[in-house]
Every structure is written in structure tokens, then in C-alpha cells.
Amino acid sequence: MAVIRLTKEFSFEAAHALNGYDGPCREIHGHSYRLFVTVKGSPSTCADDPKCGMVIDFGILKKVVNEVVVSRYDHSLVLQDTPEDESLREMLRKRFNNVITVNYRPTCENMLPDFARQIQARLPEGITLQALRLHETATSYAEWFAEDNE
User: Fold this and answer.
1) pLDDT per residue over 50-59, tens digit each?
2) Is 136 a known active-site residue?
């Protein structure tokens, strides 16, 4: 039985600030993120299965990633949960609807394991998450591979 990897691309717009960073990215700024999600599985061989020949319906993968990443992060402001910034975050939440607080500095590198955990938990049985690639800019990205995180 063949094992196949499928990749689907997603995009979302989000802002963040890297609290404590020593460069310009410590300021609030935004990115046009591109997320590539790669899953692995074997195509269905059951002739009665409407998904015969498919590893996963791309629509199912789209639904999962949209629910846990895109719809949550699109047009959001992502900030690290630090005690000293609690009043700032509360003020921002009073004015803006989509302020996300995470327990890490919201870099591409730190967002990927968080995304991986959430996506893998929602994938159908027999489908495994193999890789994520998150472009922060057209020429800069971070990657997460399952084999490196086992």
C-alpha cells in the first residue's frame, strides 16, 4: 500500500510584537503569513468509499486548519502572556475583538509547535501531520517536521 504525502497552503494576516526582543520587531507589526500543511497516509482502496483513491479529502484538511489556525489568527494581534503587560492586553481587548495571548514569544518558530499540536489532534484516524512551513515574509519561513519532534 502506497504512503502519500499531501500539502495544502493557507494564508492569514496577523500582527504581533516580540516583547523583550532587541530589534525592530519588538514593535507591533503585521505579516501576510502563508502556512503549508503536509499530512501523510495511504489512499483508500475501498471501491464503495466515496473517497476511494484519496488519503484525505482536501476539504476536510481545509476545515481542520481553518478552524484551529486561520479563523483564529486571521486579522489578530498575537501577544505573549507576560504579567507586566496584562493591563495593556486588557486595554487592547476593550477596543479590539481579536487579541490572542500565547504563553510563548509569538515567533514563527514558536507558533509552529503550537499549530502542530492543534492540527494533529483534529486529523482523522490514519492521517498524520508530517510537516508545517510558516512563511512570515515572501523570503523568510520556519519549518516543523514530525520526524524531528518524536
Assistant:
1) 888 889 999 9
2) yes
